[in-house]
Write a structure and sequence with these properties.
Number of strands: 24
CATH topology: AttH-like fold
Radius of gyration: 20 Å
Oligomer: single chain
Order of helices and strands: EEEEEEEEEEEEEEEEEEEEHEEEE
Distance between the termini: 47 Å
Number of helices: 1
CATH architecture: Beta Barrel
CATH superfamily: AttH-like domain
Helix content: under 10%
Length: 372
């Protein structure tokens, strides 16, 4: 075992140095996710930084979508002993005040995307329900995640466009998740090849003037709930505890250009029935869809996946696609993170907000009529 600076803090959870997780599962991960946007189609910036202690890798990506440009910068290096070091080549994350303020930086590089942004939380961080899935006797997911909405300030440059980011216009959401989920190089599937190719997911952190709503739905092919969450959260200064909103009911509307492998959601309705309170209905309008799987490591691209070992030396790469070109547009597949507007109706009152609308429907899903 090798010590690291984090071992000087009283945070140990097992009889190990802090760089070693209590589990030896290769799929253990610990990562940041951020999105930044002005509530419109002007720009969507998505940033991720992950550590994979049992694979000895750390990596990062940034994806900027504006107009027809889909631009990604990504980097990977060996993790080493110091898990407090969140730099990955030109990327770095600074925790200025835990759960409240963070700085996220992509230094100037040859791939035409850079930024220096500071995040300020709008609501207290919320711990979401534990995500646990076991298939064919193996644990596939066992993770927890904190989430919150917030505001951004700073500067983004993508190509020849610069965006001045001010907190009066620019918001977004972030999460921190850790635990077990598939990462790294592909493994021999064995009996896992019997698992159905199916995933139905909706995630919507919404920011309104007075409060935020965080909603999650994951269902199997029959519509059984594997994960769900619906909570309303007020800013810390409001002095109000989070309100559970009951079971979220989600009805997507699929666009005509949808394909069986990756249907496109153009709009949706999400309904909540908080106990003892008036029902809440939220109309979702998708403004700016971004294909999260393309170039970032989330997807199935065999040369770059989260936690994949890229060699002894730091690797920094850039990929860029023009969605006006049919061949590039045809690459856009899988999970979609969209800037969305939300119109909430509650007890005769209507409010408007914006945020992230994340969705993926793959394979069969009886409630929405998807055959797979």
């Amino acid at each position: 075992m090798t010590l690291s600076p984090l071992d000087d803090f009283p945070v140990h959870q097992a009889a190990q140095v802090i760089r070693h997780p209590a589990t030896s599962d290769r799929n253990f991960y610990d990562r940041y996710y951020f999105n930044c946007h002005p509530g419109s189609a002007e720009l969507m910036l998505i940033i991720g930084v992950g550590q994979y202690p049992n694979l000895g890798v750390t990596d990062a990506f940034a994806l900027a979508r504006h107009g027809d440009t889909h631009r990604v910068v990504r980097a990977s290096r060996e993790l080493g002993a110091d898990r407090m070091d969140t730099t990955v080549g030109p990327f770095r994350i600074e925790v200025i005040e835990g759960l409240r303020r963070l700085r996220v930086v992509l230094e100037p590089n040859e791939h035409d995307l850079e930024f220096d942004l500071t995040w300020q939380a709008a609501i207290p961080a919320q711990l979401e329900p534990r995500h646990f899935t076991r298939l064919q006797e193996r644990v596939i997911f066992d993770s927890v995640r904190l989430a919150q909405t917030g505001r951004w300030s700073g500067l983004v440059r993508s190509g020849d466009q610069e965006f001045t980011v001010t907190p009066d216009r620019w918001g977004g959401s972030r999460d921190r998740s850790w635990g077990i989920r598939p990462v790294g190089e592909s493994e021999p599937p064995g009996i896992q090849s019997r698992n159905p190719a199916q995933f139905f997911w909706m995630y919507a952190p919404m920011q309104f003037d007075e409060f935020a709503i965080l909603a999650i739905v994951q269902e199997d092919a029959a519509g059984n709930r594997l994960l769900e969450e619906a909570v309303r959260v007020w800013p810390e200064q409001a002095g109000r505890p989070p309100q559970q909103l009951g079971r979220p009911v989600y009805r997507p509307e699929y666009a005509t250009e949808s394909t069986p492998g990756s249907p496109v959601v153009s709009a949706a309705t999400i309904e909540f029935s908080p106990p003892g309170e008036a029902p809440i209905s939220v109309a979702v309008n998708v403004l700016h869809p971004v294909s999260l799987f393309v170039g970032t490591g989330y997807g199935l691209e065999q040369d770059w996946r989260h936690g994949m070992y890229q060699g002894e030396d730091l690797v920094v790469q850039g990929v860029c696609y023009d969605l006006a070109k049919p061949a590039d547009k045809a690459r856009m597949w899988g999970m979609v993170d969209s800037v969305a507007s939300f119109t909430l109706t509650e007890d005769g009152t209507t409010r408007t907000g914006s945020g992230l609308f994340e969705y993926w429907a793959f394979g069969a899903h009886a409630p929405t009529g998807l055959a797979g």
